[in-house]
Amino acid sequence: MKSFLYVPEGSDFTIHNLPFGIFKGGDRIAACSRIGDVVIDLGMAVTTGIFDTLNLPQGIFENRYLNPFISLGKPQTGGVRLLLQSGLCEGGLLDNDIYRESRIFLPAEDVEMLLPLEIGDYTDFYSSREHATNVGIMFRDPANALLPNWLHLPVGYHGRASSIVVSGTDIKRPSGQTMPEGADKPVFGPTRQLDFELEMAFVIGRNTHMGSSISAHDAEHYIFGCMLFNDWSARDIQKWEYVPLGPFLAKNFASTVSPWIVTLEALEPFRVPGPVQEPAVLPYLEYEGNKNYDIHLTVEIENEAGLSKTVSNSNFKYMYWNMCQQLAHHTVNGCNVRVGDLMASGTISGPESGSYGSMLEICWKGTRPVVMPDGSERRFILDGDTVRMRGWCEKDGIRVGFGPCDGKILP
Ligand code: CA
Q1: Residue 250 binned pLDDT confidence (cut-offs 50, 70, 90)
Q2: How far is CA 182 from its chain centroid?
Q3: In angstroms, what is the span from residue 123 Cα to ligand 1's centroid?
Q4: Centroid of ligand 1 to alpha carbon of 155 (angstroms)
Q5: Cα(3) to centroid of ligand 1, in Å?
Q6: Model pTM score
Q7: Residue 101's pLDDT is what?
Q8: Residues whose CB is less than 8 angstroms from the CB of residue 15 and which lie 6 or more positions away in sequence, other chains included
Q9: Which of 37, 56, 97, 379 has an alpha carbon 20 to 30 Å from 302's alpha carbon atom?
Q10: Can you say how many angstroms the Cα of residue 286 is from the centroid of all Cα atoms in its chain?
Q11: What gap in Å lies between CA 65 and CA 69, rounded to an integer?
Q12: Mean pLDDT rounded to a whole number for the chain
């Protein structure tokens, strides 16, 4: 498969990807896809007749969010992706000088990518065994790092959807209440321990009714695709507030997502087995086949001067609990889900210190600071720093990536 459009070496956006997003160019806002450095205006593409066999509703690409499109279901959304794929190949329907000069194809640098989803609810899991173990060792008992429930269920909590922003949005350093070491009363002020959490999020693609459950076996039918996710966290605020109900203001001030939703279909070639789950899980969490995905993940910190350092090389394949188990667990009590809901993995840490997914772990509670190229040290994220996350799959010459998940911290 080769496109008539140029795809630079190492691009996240090959003919094998074709993710979905929402762009703004001038006054126009519409659904789009991308190949190489070209954004494809799907609202314009539909006028060529390329999707006629799918009988799509009029104006389905002319919405501020992708929710109505996703709600069509996989036969149609997957159909759009496949028809676009063949249309973009050499000799395909869009390989025509008339279209090349049209407003279907836009230089990516000329458009702004918007948050593509109206996110009703956001849930954050805690599904990396390495991350949960590291946190347990640092804050509790090294001998019993994992709490007794951890190997039996995908631990999670309900996060806040209102403060999820698209890559490129600046984040204001949050203030809050903390209890300084050795003090006898709390103080108020800007967090001194601002951290990132390297996560993947999946997008719900189908509504369910309250009282019904999604089985681990069927879960993939309810997952539209995945995005990179940075669950910004204020560790000092978290440490003081989280007992007994878990994170609150330490997490709800901001989360950053990448602008593109990479479909499960595009991720299909990159399935890998997950870790062996021992003890055996309860029947409703059992699954068959390969439900983990081999997605390389990196985190880079860039200072105000533009000097950067890669602080993590991780992989989504390390997850102990997979997305199907998370969704089965989330709905096993009858909790309904809605199109556009976001479910994040929890911090993704690998086995070695170079693959940890938060500064808390990378610097091991501040004891092993990261040295930046200018010689300055980082234990947490400073004002003026930009945190850049990237994710991509690569196998047999096929590459599928997620685009940027970046956020800069302002005072
Ligand atoms: Ca998190």
Answers
A1: very high
A2: 38
A3: 9
A4: 11
A5: 38
A6: 0.97
A7: 81
A8: 1, 2, 3, 7, 35, 85, 88, 89
A9: 37
A10: 24
A11: 8
A12: 97
Query: 216 CA distance to ligand 1 centroid (A)?
Result: 22
Distance CA 226, CA 242 (A): 28
Ion ligand 1, residue ranges at CB < 5 A: 124, 197, 231
Q: Please, which pLDDT band fits residue 100 given cuts at 50, 70 and 90?
A: confident
Section 308-320 average pLDDT: 98
In the chain, where are the structural domains located? 21-114, 122-410
3-state secondary structure of 394: strand
C-alpha 126 to ligand 1 mean position (Å): 7
CA angle 200/202/203 to nearest 5° reads: 145
pLDDT surpasses 90 at 281: yes
Three-state secondary structure call for residue 74: helix
Looking at CATH, the fold of the domain delimited by 122-410 is given as Fumarylacetoacetate hydrolase; domain 2 (3.90.850)
CA dihedral of residues 323, 326, 330, 332 (deg, nearest 10): 110
Work out the percent of the chain whose per-residue pLDDT is above 70.
100
Cis peptide before 283 (omega within 30 of 0): no
Burial class (CB in 10 A: 0-12, 13-18, 19+), 265: middle
| Range 270-298 average pLDDT | 98
Question: In this structure, which CATH number among 2.40.160.20, 3.50.30.60, 2.60.300.12, 2.30.30.230 belongs to the domain 21-114?
Answer: 2.30.30.230
Q: Which two tokens stand for residue 62?
A: 């002319």
- Point out the catalytic residue in the list 131, 158, 209, 329: 131
How far, in Å, is the centroid of ligand 1 from the Cα of 229? 9
> Please, are residues 92 and 278 in contact by the beta-carbon 8 Å criterion?
no
Q: Residue 131 catalytic? A: yes
Please classify residue 179 by burial: count the beta carbons closer than 10 Å to its beta carbon, then call 0-12 exposed, 13-18 middle and 19+ buried: middle
